[in-house]
Amino acid sequence: MLTLGALAFLAPWVLLGLGAVPLLWWLLRVVPPAPLRVRFPAIRLLFGLVAQQEAAVKTPWWLVALRLALACAAIVALAHPVWEPAVPVAGSGPLILVLDDGWAAARDWEARRAAADRVLAQAERAGRPVLLVTTAPSDRDGRVPGAEVRPAAEASTIVHALRPKPWGTDRTAALAAFEAARPETGTSIWIADGVADAGAPLLAEALLSVGSLEVRIASQDDGPLVLMPPGTRSRLLEVGARRIAGDGPRAAWVRASGEDGRLLARGELVFDPGEDRAAVALDLPGEVRNLITRLDIEGERGAGATVLLDDRWRRRPVGLVSGGSLERDQPLLSDVFYVERALEPFTELRRGEIGALLANPPSVIVLADVAKIPAADLEALEPWIADGGVLLRFAGPRFAEGADELVPVRLRGGRTIGGAMSWAEPARLAPFDSSSPFAGLAIPRDVLVARQVLAEPTLDLPGKTWARLTDGTPLVTGEPRGKGWLVLVHTTANTAWSNLAISGLFVELLQRLVELSAGVPTDESEAALPPWRSLDGFGVLGPPPPAARAVPLATIDAEPPGPTRPPGYYGPAEAPRALNLGPSLAEATGLGPWPADAVVSPFGTTDEIDVQPWLVIAAILLALAELVASLAARGQILRPRPVAAAAVVLALVGATPPVGAVDDAFVIEATQDLRLAYVRTGDADVDDLTRAGLWGLGTILRARTSVEPGEPMAIDLENDELLFFPLVYWAITPDQPRPSDGARAKIDRYLKTGGILVLDTRDPDAAMGGGGASAATLRRLLRGLSIPPLVPVPHDHVLTRSFYLLDEFPGRWTGGQVWIEQTDGGVNDGVSSILVGSHDWAAAWAMDTRLQPLLPVVPGGERQREIAYRFGINLVMYATTGNYKADAVHVPTILERLGE
Amino acid sequence: MVEADLSIRQRAEQLAAHLPPLLVAAERVAAVVAQGVHGRRRVGAGETFWQFRRYQPGDEIGRIDWRQSAKSMHVFVRENEWEAAESVWLWCDTSASMRFASHLAPVEKLDRARLLLLALAVLLVQGGEHVALLGADRRPSTGRATLARLAHALGRDDGLGGSLPPLIDIPRYAQIVVIGDLLSPIEDIAALIRHYTNQGVRGYLFQVLDPAEETLPFAGHTLFEGLEDEGSMLTRRAEELRKDYVARLAEHKGDLLQLARAARWRVGLHHTDRPAPEALLSIYMALAGHA
């Protein structure tokens, strides 16, 4: 390796090739480019001509310079230069590379791998073998892979195949692997992930005992974050996070996404200085919350920053039991109608008898006006409640007659407040106590309770009362039984006793009550759940790794996730159980402190730049330039047309010319002379012909009249201003694009301010009396323009007498109808702003510079061409003088008057 | 060979289909070479009644139309319309220098020249005129057979023709039409014009040039080679020759025009990158006397 300052060459002997460059220079100077052979008939005229500047028989200097640069670039590229090569690792023996590939390494895996690559590249350059030690158990067999001294290139392929694992490292096992392959001496580099485990200090000691140890680790403030699963029993989704290391202020965003990856909610986690935990509460509607399947920390990757949610966080099943039988015929009077409507959006409703419901236990069972629960059902209900079920009972007429004992408070019969036979007013609700599960709900003023069942006043009654009326009597009472709750609403679930059921409060009350439930009581059987979907090291769900085993439900949370129980979903696909990495990391700490001999540095700081690819690209570009330049030197590249060149330049620059800005040069050009203008159609043949036609007409005009127009001008409807032209000739071609809105507005303004637009469909069929596609084209082009009603040119129209007396308007074709605006003399002095025909006048007028007509007229005869010229003259006269000549219509009358 | 003849003849007829039959404007009315079928819209020898005219002293007694004279006080002479056909000798340059098409033009000059000549012949025959191929035919004729003969003669691809028509004797008061690149030395062209003018023949020189011959659109190190063994010429910077070349060509064309004017011949110019109908129209109008 040859080093020149910051530049080093990996294959320096290739640079000897630079010595051949002067030889190349001499050869290039001497050998000129071969001439281009051209067979040329008019060579007789060439004989004797001498170019003023016969260049020396030499290749132009710039071409030589270009070729030399190309040669130098190729030679230097072959020498493989490297900018600021990494300082080689000192020491002897194999290079020991310890690479942490646990969950915490996923977040910056690319940087880690690049750091490992650099270390391996140095080892390869120094010719040192590598002992690669990875610290996480493999996902194939669940064991930490053994270490072996290998050539650096081989170790590099292993590093490239490595993926971070969704579980933590096991450095005790890694230490064992290292000890098994322990060399006499060596240099150790440990790319650490920053999460401590029991084996870490021992491994550091062992590495130091062999030689030097250099630890490369991410900075403390940028350590890994762990996301904790939210609680299942709270109404809000309270997401917590932990940081393994660091104590500065730090913020992160947690995002909740659905099964399809849709972002459903976002919340900011803020770590206060010194705190290692942060939490955010996501307040979501029940429906949205139920859609959430996973939570991630934005910008973090890996299993630690991902939490999977399962049915425990989802909508609760609710069983409905009604005491009445009105469901089918009178739904509005049904006991459970309003409960159903309130719960449907965020719970899964089931209906049936208590026994049937308990076969597949729901989270909540609602009993509406059920007075006596059968004894068998009572026995089944009690353990269900103790297990976390919520039994919600509503009072009602049957319930008031005499209820069973499964109620939170003792009852003493019903009472009626208000009504036909009472002076009392129906009662309103009192504000909820702060200890009540309903705390914070707003009470609508129009909720009135007319009947209720009363509770026996006991000492513990106030504690059990969750809602009360303004007179203090309880409306909702509840009592915990085991893990579950027994709740009684002292009025009906329909509108018979109260209008509570049709208020918004009812929905909120029911939501709060459902949230009390613990979710689906799980089946605590010994059955093992097979892994269904597992997170990989980057936090992506996929098929479970080979080492994954089925996990008994009872012990799923007992052990931390590992190769045999990777984080992910377990159990049947319909109701999977999530296993998250977060809870096992509640106590994890940062790596360190390191032994005093170890050098700790962040990874990914110094970076050598391989210059070779850039030089190769430069050489290729130079080669292309040389090709173009030498062709140009031989004259084989003709000058591209200016339009094409402009297009290329525009495409290269990526700029578009300013649209709508009126170009001064154009204005001066247009107004210096009287100009006949034509619309550029995009069809070069048609445009040329139209130009020749207007030029021919101009020539005829100059010869015969005092109108002396300048060269005709082509205008672009989109960009150019029309206002300067008395007459705009528009040849219609089938594939012309429709003018844009701006262009149409411009045309409209032009027509309104006195311009004349001559539309020529150039269609012999239409001219000879047939219809034709041209009419459709015309309609398409003019759609959106305010075209006035058109009529065939009347016999006494000014056009027939503005210069010549005419009775037909032939062009290249004849026989078609010519249409003009139907004017009443008011607008623009009665001058038609538009003229439509199909005779292809421009083709008849067209002549070349020797004044020879370009196209024959059909059916023929120079008489027809002459009449076409006359029509053109009349048209220009009409456009320039308006209805001035219309007065000639009145000449007989005037003469008559003068005669008198 | 036959197929090739057919193809160029078909193309020529297609081209000619857009123009009405061509009646050559005859100047020298007195010198009729052959009786034609179409009227000249003036009094002359012919079979179709043209007009009655009052008898004037000197008119032959036999020409008095007695039936017409009997209808009125005056004596009328019956005059017929002059019917005459012009004979036109056509010639087309088939030399090697015509076999040239640059990158700017879609066809060879020869191709275009032959096509124009045949199309012109079609128009002339339709108009009843007599045509002949200068140097190949002994005397002009008309009709479809003439066209076939012309097409065949033109299709002979021997490239042996000279750059200018042969100087032979043809009947007086005929017209000749020469289509070619007319790049021969101006003295040769002067000799040609002199020869035929001395015979009382009027002519129309129609120059067919490739656009490259007009502009010399070459640049850089270039070796020019002639097509007729004129030799070759090497230049370093072809673009520097352009100005002088264009001036020289303009001079040549100016000389040509001057020569033609002096002899009351006419000159036309066509570039092969322009459409053929344009050229045909130009020839048509020149021969029909419109321009």
Provide structural commentary.
The complex is a heterodimer of chains A (900) and B (291). By secondary structure, chain A is an alpha/beta fold. Chain A is built from 24 helices and 40 strands. In chain A, strands 18-17-19-20-25-24-23 form a seven-stranded mixed sheet, with helices on both faces. Chain A has a seven-stranded mixed sheet with strand order 35-34-36-37-40-39-38. Chain A has a six-stranded mixed sheet with strand order 7-6-5-8-9-32, with helices on both faces. The longest helix of chain A has 22 residues. The radius of gyration of chain A is 47 Å and the shape is flat. Chain B is α/β, with parallel strands linked by helices and 291 residues long. In chain B, helix 1 crosses helix 4 and helix 3 runs antiparallel to helix 4. Chain B is elongated and about 90 Å long. The two termini of chain B are 37 Å apart. Classes of the chains: A alpha/beta (900), B alpha/beta (291). At the A-B interface, strand 3 and helix 2 of A face strand 8, strand 9, helix 7 and helix 8 of B. Strand 3 of chain A pairs parallel with strand 8 of chain B, so a sheet runs across the interface.
The first-to-last residue Cα distance of chain A is: 119 Å
Largest sheet of chain A: 7 strands, mixed
Shape of chain B: elongated
The CA-CA distance between the termini of chain B, in Å, is 37 Å
Q: Average pLDDT across residues of chain A?
A: 81
**Structure class of chain A:** alpha/beta
Q: Helix segment count of chain B?
A: 8
- Largest protein interface, residues of each chain: A-B, 42 and 52 residues
Question: Runs of chain A with pLDDT <50, length 5+?
Answer: 519-524, 638-646, 652-660
Keywords:
A: 900 residues; alpha/beta; seven-stranded mixed beta sheet; 29% helix; flat; B: 291 residues; five-stranded parallel beta sheet; three-stranded antiparallel beta sheet; 8 helices
